[in-house]
Amino acid sequence: MHSTTDPDYGDRILFQNTRQKGLAFEEVYLQLAHFIREEPMYQYRLSIGTDSQVSRTTVFATAIHLHRVGRGAIGFITSRHVPRPILSLREKIFYETSRTLEIAYLFTPDKIEDIVDIFAGRRTRRGDIDFEFHLDIGTNGATRALISEMVAMTRGTIFEPKIKPESYAASAYANRYTKGKKIPASPILTKEQ
Predict the structure, then answer these.
(1) Pairing of β 58-68 and β 73-82
(2) Is residue 191 included in any domain, yes or no?
(3) Within a domain: 1
(4) Could you report how far apart the first and last alpha carbons of the chain are, in Å?
(5) Residue 99 belongs to domain spanning
């Protein structure tokens, strides 16, 4: 995993959505803040989650999804390719969780505070925001044995862990991009990374 203490790290991860491509994290963050500022009187849910698809290689798609509850959403996707199939379920889920954590850490305490301040500045009809960490695991199937381990990895972040069926950023939004939709080009991991 890359060091997120590198101030330029977020600029090297590229995101896209259906309207834009090649966005650095700072551009994504500014669009998220703008989306909230447009209507700060509503409830929001900022979710981050990763899904993967294994073939001859393994592709990981990570979603940042901002839901204005009952009133629309905006989302961004980034990807990472591993040049081998990851066949171990534990390794694949660990990598998905690590990748989600990596993106969550781009939301520094200052960035989180700036988002919260958007709501604090309102005197009437003040909205609010929940920060969620979506894990692509659930109580049904083989991933249930990994729940406590993966949830423990999220501790220490402001993001509340969610599992299936509540983890839609991973199990629905990111999943669309691992199952055929085009995702942004990203570097293939090498041994040095």
Answers:
(1) antiparallel
(2) no
(3) no
(4) 7
(5) 9-178
Burial class (CB in 10 A: 0-12, 13-18, 19+), 2: exposed
User: Using an 8 Å Cβ cutoff, are 93 and 100 in contact?
Assistant: no
Total domains, the chain: 1
Residues 118 and 126: beta-carbon distance below 8 Å: no
Q: What is the pLDDT of residue 74?
A: 98
Closest CA to 65 of 52, 50, 48, 84: 48
In tens, the pLDDT along 3-49 reads 445 656 656 899 999 899 999 999 999 999 999 999 999 999 999 99
The CB density around residue 66, as the number of other CB atoms within 10 Å, is 22
Residue 39 lies in a domain: yes
Choice between 126 and 130, residue whose per-residue pLDDT is larger = 130
Check residue 157 and give its pLDDT.
Answer: 94
Residue with tokens 């199937």: 141
Residue 133 lies in a domain: yes
pLDDT for res 133: 98
The reported pLDDT for the residue numbered 178 is: 87
Cα–Cα dist 63/65, whole Å: 6
pLDDT digits 0-9 by tens, 137-155: 999 999 999 999 999 999 9
